[in-house]
Fold:
Amino acid sequence: MPFRHYRLLHFTLKRNLSEVYLTIFLKTFALSLVGLFVPIYLLREVGISFPEFIIYLIIAFIFVLIGYLVGAVIGSYIGIRKLIAVSVPFYIVFYFLLYNLQNFSIPINFLAIIIGLGDGIFWLAYNIDFAKFSDKKHRGEEVKFWFVFASLLGILGPFIGGFILSYLNFDILFLLVIVLISLSAVPLLNSKDVVIKYRFSLKDIFRKENFDNAHRFTVQGIRLLVNGIFWPIFVFYIIPKYYITGIVFASAAFFSSIAVWFIGNEVDKLNRNLFSDFSSMINGIVSFIKVFVNSLPQVLGVSVLDGVSYSASEISNNALAYDQANKTNMVGFFIFREIILFLSRITILLILLISNLDLISSLKLGFILMGAVGFLQWLL
Structure:
């Protein structure tokens, strides 16, 4: 264990990436304060309908994909660190517009374009960086390190965000997020960058070997949508109190971080494909159970199980993706993966839009579909 911790420290220091990690720390903490509550804010405080919210998500996911393409072009000229810095203004503008959404007539879909582009540019830069410099033999452990780091912030963020919303308001929360994200760009201003010239074509995106884990990426895209967006909305409508919602997800993040710490060590020892499929099936079972949840104890129990099984599946899926990226054109592969994530999310959203159900029934249908694809991954 001591050697493993040293190796992770060495992984950071030998690349002189302290500025990048400080940037990601500040950004992740800022988004953990508010990310859980943005969908609730749009539905409850702003008052958009659920079909309008679905269209908002569709537009956002379209522009995440466009952000990947734009980031791939820009990043080949300015470097990965500067590309991360380029994404920061998009987040600042997004939360500034959210702050003013109820004061001015701002089209909600314009916000979807802004956040989609920012997310696409940031995650392309981060994924290339991690795939390029992480250690294949210990990739599961290094992915674990990031997941635990994010989970620890996930404990503080929702708790503090829920507290602010209960005793203050969204305006204060948005201003705090804007300040933190603005500060996150500062460490990169004087940071030395390495420009990696990437070139890719349609052939690089749709290479035959890129399809090896396409079914897992399909399930991953649905899981990110259903667990990351639908479940918090469902929890809030069961217990309509911001601080309770924050406590629920802070508790889930706490137990998830403990589980992930041990799971990450095992991913490097076991068959990652089998591990991914098994954890996906468990998460599918938990997703089915969500349909019947209607009280705080049930919400807490299911959220913990959901967080643990979700993290287990994501660690193995991301480790597989980074392995695969190093065997082919890296940019082309990550754009391909984003296309699969995009198509899976859009499929679910279109099903819900066509179904024309009320909000709660739509969310439950999303849980059922998530459960079904989780089982399907295991069967395949």
In short: Residues 1-17 have pLDDT under 50 and may be disordered. Residues 15-379 form a domain with the Growth Hormone; Chain: A; fold (CATH 1.20.1250.20).
